[in-house]
Amino acid sequence: MKPIGLYIHIPFCNGKCPYCDFYSVMPSEEKIDAYVSAVCKRIDAADRIYDTVYFGGGTPSLIGAKRISEIMSHINRTPDCEATLECNPSDTGALNSDFDFGIVAKSGINRISMGLQSANDCERKSLGRRGGCDDVERAIVKARAAGIDNISLDLMLGIPAQTKESLKGSIEFCKNSGAKHISAYILKIEESTPFYRIKNTLALPDEDETCDLYLYAVNELEKAGFSQYEISNFSLKGYESRHNLKYWRCEEYLGIGAAAHSFVDGKRFYYERSIDDFIGGTAPVDDGEGGDEEEFIMLALRLSEGLIFDEYQKRFGKRIDKDIIEKSRELEKHGLVRVTDNNISLTVDGFLVSNSVICNLLGY
Amino acid sequence: MAVSKDKIRNFCIIAHIDHGKSTLADRLLEKTKSVALRDMTAQLLDKMDLERERGITIKAHAVKLNYVAEDGEEYVLNLIDTPGHVDFNYEVSRSLAACEGAVLIIDASQGVEAQTLANTYLALDHDLELVPVINKIDLPSADPDRVAAEVEDVIGLDCSEAPRVSAKTGVNIEQVLERIVKDVPAPEANDDLPLRALIFDSVYDSYKGVIVYVRVKEGKIKPGDTMRMMATGAEFTVVETGYMRATLPEPCKELTAGEVGYITASIKTVGDARVGDTVTTVENPASEPLPGYRKVNPMVYCGVYPADGADYENLRDALEKLQLNDAALTYEPETSGALGFGFRCGFLGLLHLEIIQERLEREYDLDLVTTIPSVVYKINLTDGSMVEIDNPTHYPDPATIASCEEPFTDAHIYAPADYVGAIMDLCQDRRGIFKNMDYITPERVDIHYELPLNEIIYDFFDSLKSRTRGYASFDYEISDYRKSNLVKLDVLLNGDIVDALSFIIHSEKAYSKARKIAERLKEHIPRQMFEIPIQIGIGGKIIARETVKAMRKDVLAKCYGGDITRKKKLLEKQKEGKKRMRHFGTVEVPQEAFMAVLKLDDND
Q: Is this structure's pTM higher than 0.90?
């Protein structure tokens, strides 16, 4: 059977960051144990082989290296499997002061992703991140000492009081830390978060300033050797996230855990946002068919490589709609899209208005 | 049941809008016990909701009343209600032609108004005996003596015996009935001549087909006869004849000279029974039709489009149904690059347009976009030929135009003297040509202007009302076509002409209008992926320009942990939002932007 990706959602956090709307709850030892054993059971039941694994959250590191390692032991992996663990540096220090990168490395984890968000401690505080950026530095040193060199850091753009100067500082921090991969997300104020209620009191950059910060980040990261390969993702050559690429290339993955989404055998489904339901064994919710032409195009256009005509033809056995190419040429005049004989891709300016561009190309 | 002809009285009620015509009609029904009290709803004759709401009568209606007068004799009174708006002037004239007399209502506080005079002249043109009635004496501001004097002065009508009534409270209504019996002459009628019956209205009924309302002038008609419409030549076998009662029709054996009644004959569309036509019989045909028939032509045109293209068929069905009942409404399919498939509709005037639009939206539940109304222009070309244009899209290449002509109207505005300045400002602004001004009384004036029709089809009446705090009244009729310096304005978005927004305008007004349109569009077009120039041009020349700046950001930065469906849904939400957008190449324009431009008025 063809290997697929595996996403494992660990929905525990010691606190809720005021901008985050991912599913997480406060942990207790009993809950964590029950949850981990439910996860392992589902992995066994799925009986698949995986070439990427991704522990996301929540704060996966919170459950401790041993439990991570236990879950890993249930996962049937290819020899070259990319296995990522999201860590919160302050929590790896606080709850589990002895978080042992050695144990997770031994279990097969070979990539660490950490939420730096900003190297400016004032900005970090305004985002509700616990701990300073020296915690991040220490965690990186520990991980690397354990032999995990493939490290990704998250940056956030458009956060309260952010300026180009402070952003420059954060990018320099990334560069000096030896990280191989950077995700730089534009802060989106989600309705269900505390930030939403107080958004008017936050010194948020306006739309133009946020766009400028994004363009600045793309440029600075590029200079530091991190090339953009997706709207919000940058890496040194060869360090693209293979797991995340599966999402954008419309490849299959199994998601295990509360609120985890799957795309397996052409079907999309997900588990409800409830730890208890997951532990209790509730079946996932059907989310319809996946992987049609529209979805493929919509996701491919998020990537710098864009929509590659050969890939499309290989997958769907037909040429790309002429209409899309014509519309692309129209948008090319406005500098939003590039069209070549082989692909259609969005420019950086196009990325900023990618919703409209994608809708336009799909004829919405 | 044949009544002696000398006991028949055919009359109508004429009045300025809001002077209480429908209310008086209701009281007459009540006093003659034509309707059981429990069946009375206010303004029984105004059958459409819209008529009741707007307080105007749109269709003519007729009803037969029986009245035992003070002299002890029983009379048959045929009341023919007339439409109350200048748009329906022709229908009014046909209703008048069916009568021998007219009750002229004058409001006891407002006195003589524009339509009071217009209707009076119309009635006198038809040799009708006028019965003045002063209404609304119950109002605190009522001054019947002053108003009576005004009527005698202005109209030259003796008001010494004019009933002073309150249609609202029912005071002195019998006096009105008595005056009708005494003053309105009985019809001159001869049953032995070949049939000539005047059609003064026709309505479509889904069971009986068209119901033709007639006044029999000469001869008689009964079921089984073959009727012929003398103007259209259409022939039908009469199925039923009868009298209109207030609540139900009352079939009868035959209709004879002098009577007012209805005929049904399985007629499919009102176009076959046009108002003003003469009915005769094939068996014993009349040689000449009654005078006065003309086919009414639409004066105002506009494009009517469904907001949702999927409603096109529904719109067509609705127009078809409305036309069954409204011979003056015309429509033909047209296509607009901007608005898709729709219809070019012709109307008698702006009110007619508004009524049709409202009925389409209300009775047929359609969401519509209408283009700027246009009058019919005559364009003389350099090759000596002439074209009539009711749609700016068909405006010829300016290089081929020798001259343009536009319709002018003869307009009278009646208002308190205090507002003369404001009214004249408005008329000057609308390119009016001042003719003269008469003081009807020391406080009231009649201002006579010649105004281009295209200046009054849009919001003129609203502006007039607002400048005179509602005290002015207004009446007009089309007079002639005059040479005029007209240009066609085009709106260009991103370099492409938006056909639905083009319109024809006098060159003097082109610049200021162009600037306003550009500003309006800029306000209402949301930022898009790239900059959008808005240009307003005459021919190739751009006379106004604005720019909608490019939107910079609408990105979903994070594709949430494999939750593709969520992203898809967000895009689909965007798709939903775009349904209400109109597409021009790559530019999207929300419906509101159109409406904002179409609704541009003087106050902007």
A: no
- Residues A112 and A226 occupy one common structural domain: yes
Q: Tens digits of per-residue pLDDT, A233-265?
A: 999 999 999 999 999 999 999 999 999 999 999
Length of chain B: 604
Quick check: A354 and B562 CB within 8 A? no
b/e B425-449 (16+ beta carbons within 10 angstroms → b) = ebbeebbbeeeeeeebeeebbbbbb
Whether residue A277 lies inside any domain: the answer is: no
Chain B touched by A181 (CB under 8 Å): no
ipTM for this model: 0.70
| Nearest Cα residue to B82 out of B172, B166, B176, B17 | B17
Residues 46-65 of A with CB under 8 A from B: 56
| Length in residues, chain A | 364
Helix axes A293-300, B564-579, angle to 10 degrees: 100
Interior CA angle at B597 toward B596 and B602, to 5°?
Answer: 95
A73 and A139 both lie in a single domain: yes
Nearest to B561 among A7, A210, A232 (CB): A7
State residue A92's pLDDT score: 52
Of B327, B270, B255, give the one whose Cα is nearest residue B296: B327
Measure the CA–CA gap between B469 and B474, rounded to whole angstroms: 14
Tell me if A285 is assigned to some domain.
Answer: no
Separation CA B177–CA B163 (nearest Å): 10
Structure tokens at B267: 């007629």
Per-residue HEC secondary structure of B365-411 comes to CCCEEECCCEECEEEEECCCCEEEECCHHHCCCHHHEEEEEEEEEEE
Q: How many structural domains is chain A composed of?
A: 2
Q: Which domain holds residue A42?
A: 4-247
